[in-house]
Amino acid sequence: MSRFSETTILFAVLACAFDLVSHTASAQQLTQGAAPQVVVSGSAEVLIPPSSASFSIGIVTSGQTSAAAAQENARISKAVLEALERAGLTHEEIKGSRLQVSPHWEYDDKGQHPKRTAFDATNSIQVATDNLPQVGTYIDVALSSGATNASEIAFSAKDVAEARRRALSQAVAAARADGETIAHAGGGELGDVQLLSTEKINDVPGVAMEEIVVSASRAGGRSVNSDVIPSQIKVSATVIARWRFVSTATAK
Fold first, then answer.
1. Under 8 Å between Cβ of 114 and 47
2. What is the CA radius of gyration of the chain?
3. Which of 23, 32, 116, 233 is buried most, with the most CB atoms less than 10 Å from its CB?
4. Phi-psi region for residue 55, left (φ > 0), alpha (ψ -120 to 50) or beta?
């Protein structure tokens, strides 16, 4: 090996050693200079009564042609809407409808050779109401008038701001209680707050909605009993908290 190569290798080794010592010293300084902290999360839930409900009424029909399926669906949908209006549902509470017509396919025993045997028409009527005591009645009336099912039944509260603030307050208190327990167990106490941050855990922040599905075959004019009990709305909050850790241990 030439003298030039030996010098180059020696220089490279010395450079690596210097770099390692430098990084080690920096890490020690960072560790020694960093103030110890206590980091915890806290969660809380507040229950409030619902103020509104929404649901979807489904009408499904079949026919040998798409026109026949759609016409039969329109006839039943009209009867359902008229019955709902007689039961007290207003035009403003009917938020819209969506009709879909598609071919109905049947397959052989091997799941092959599809054959179109009919057409299916499905109409979904969207309803939103503040008249919670009548929700069960509306569903009964719809099913008794020829509707196939009632689905996506959800209860919600319009104003959750105050409940959200209560949940946040309770979540912070829970986080502090846990933080104090951790600090005391570690021989110290909590110092100044370094961070308080909320965390979203729902699509609608802090609001949980219960969903129910009710279905029935056409009752041929007979009454259908659907008891719908509004559930409490759960408003939840989660916070992340960080405090400075202050040691109270007596030096020996």
1. no
2. 33
3. 233
4. beta
Neighbours of 30 (CB within 10 A): 9
User: Letter for the amino acid at 224?
Assistant: V
pLDDT band at residue 29 using 50, 70 and 90 as cut-offs: very low
pTM over 0.70, yes/no: no
Q: Residue 231 — pLDDT band, cuts 50, 70, 90? A: confident
pLDDT of residue 114: 85
What's the mean pLDDT in 95-110?
Answer: 90
pLDDT tens for residues 198-213? 865 444 444 444 444 4
Residue closest to 125 by CA, chosen among 155, 83, 67, 158: 83
For the four alpha carbons of 108, 113, 118 and 119, in that order, the dihedral sign comes to positive
* 3-class secondary structure per residue, the chain: CCHHHHHHHHHHHHHHHHHHHHHHHHHHHHHHHCCCEEEEEEEEEEEECCCEEEEEEEEEEEECCHHHHHHHHHHHHHHHHHHHHHCCCCHHHEEEEEEEEEEEEECCCCCCCCEEEEEEEEEEEEEEECCHHHHHHHHHHHHHCCCCEEEEEEEECCCCHHHHHHHHHHHHHHHHHHHHHHHHHCCEEEEEEEEEEEECCCCCCCEECCEEEEECCCCCCCCCCCCCCCCCEEEEEEEEEEEEEEECCCCC
**Comparing 132 with 30, which gets the higher pLDDT?**
132
Q: Which amino acid is at 203?
A: D
CA angle 100, 116, 108 (to 5 degrees): 130
CA 180 to chain CA centroid, nearest Å: 32
Cβ proximity of 233 and 208 under 8 Å: yes
